[in-house]
UniProtKB/TrEMBL annotation:
This is YhfH-like protein. InterPro entries: YhfH-like (IPR025432). It comes from the Bacteria. Pfam families: YhfH.
Length: 44
């Protein structure tokens, strides 16, 4: 039996920053992979 789309998206693992391993808070229409802290380090 197929699960509902809502159940599917709730069951996905949280996004994790590949640089430091910290959880990334996802935003709509955002394709960023790094957390804000690692992104700010790259801009320096």
């Amino acid at each position: 039996m197929l699960m509902s789309p809502l159940e599917f998206f709730r069951s996905l693992p949280k996004k994790v920053c590949p640089e430091c391993g910290e959880g990334v808070e996802e935003q709509a229409e955002s394709y960023l992979m790094e957390c804000d802290r690692c992104l700010s380090k790259k801009e320096e």
